[in-house]
Amino acid sequence: MTENEITEIVIGCAIKVHKALGPGLLESAYQECLYYELQKTILEVEQQKVIPLIYEEVKLECGYRSDLVLNNKVIVELKSVDALNDIHLAQILTYLKLTDCKVGLLINFNVLKLTDGLRRVVYKY
């Protein structure tokens, strides 16, 4: 399955969750509901996947965790904030850099229309 096919499924599930719940909840609520929806699909879904930091020969368990990883290809970071900003973009770019994933979705559920809080991010090695 391609990254585009995966992101299409994720976006559809996220829109379903947002339509049901609306804005204003905690990020953790959206994460659990989106995880539930994604488990009903054909995707392999991992929640709170640890992302190690490797510096030279040292592997550091620094506590980095991606919200969702799909088919070991796409990272999804969820937010419930007033607006996405550069630090949120930097976070998902860093996660993509530290993994073998090249595509990420940054989804802010604290918007009236979910597509206004959605960013697709591609990391170029």
Radius of gyration computed on alpha carbons: 14 Å
Return the average pLDDT rounded to an integer: 95
Tell me the number of strands. 7
- Unreliable stretches covering 5 or more consecutive residues: none
Net shape: globular
Oligomer: single chain
Number of helices: 3
Q: Structural class of the helices, strands and pairings?
A: alpha+beta
Strand content: 25-35%
What are the secondary-structure elements, in order, as H or E? HHEEEEEHEE
Helix content: 25-40%
Across the major sheet, the strand order is: 1-4-5-6-7
Work out the count of structural domains. Answer: 1
Distance between the termini: 21 Å
Could you give a short account of the major beta sheet?
A: 5 strands, mixed
Which features characterize this protein?
single chain, 125 residues, alpha+beta, 5-stranded mixed beta sheet, two-stranded antiparallel ribbon, 3 helices, globular
Describe this protein's structure.
The protein has 125 residues and is α+β, with helices and mostly antiparallel strands. It has one domain. 36% of the residues lie in helices and 28% in strands. It has three helices and seven strands, in the order H-H-E-E-E-E-E-H-E-E. The chain has helices at 3-21, 27-39, 86-98; strands at 45-50, 53-55, 58-60, 65-70, 74-79, 103-108, 118-122. Strand 4 and strand 5 (74-79) form a beta hairpin. Helix 1 (3-21) packs across helix 2. The longest helix is centred in the first third of the chain and has 19 residues, at 3-21. It is globular. It starts with a helix and ends with a strand.
